[in-house]
Amino acid sequence: MQGRTCCCLTIMEYLSYLEDSHLLHFVPKFDYSQRKQLVNPRKVYAIDTGLVNVNSASFTDDSGRLLENMVYLHLRRQYKDIFYFSGKGECDFVAFHKGNMQVAIQVCYHLNADNLDRELNGMVEALDFFNCAEGLLVTHAQRDEFEKAGKRITVLPAHEYLI
């Protein structure tokens, strides 16, 4: 068992090197407790998506993941404190400025009947938690607006959001 602990510590050390060299960024799960932020799983985003594509052995379409990565990089230029929110559902990003939540963003490559409830429910849960009235859902090319549980969710295509 001690070998496994050492191996995990080595992996964590290598990942911290990748973060320190700005190849990867890690986004923690939002929690008011910093200790819980450290122990909860973090999402990983690449600074250079081309490097990821060259080194990826994926045989599936990663368009959704790449879109989420692009939105993260855009948010990173605007906000220092970025988290993901997870409760019953998940909201991809909640960004803060000086301790105040500024924006909640969900990313979905293509909204359809199969994923609409999941995407909206995760967003509404985050908006309720932070007592916010509206959120943003970024897609590849769709534009729409939804009202759910008294919350307004604006759907924007990525090319408009990233301008």
UniProtKB/TrEMBL annotation:
Origin: domain of life: Bacteria
Classification via InterPro entries: DUF4143 (IPR025420)
Domain DUF4143: 10-109
Protein name listed in UniProt: DUF4143 domain-containing protein
Organism phylogeny: Bacteria, Pseudomonadati, Bacteroidota, Sphingobacteriia, Sphingobacteriales
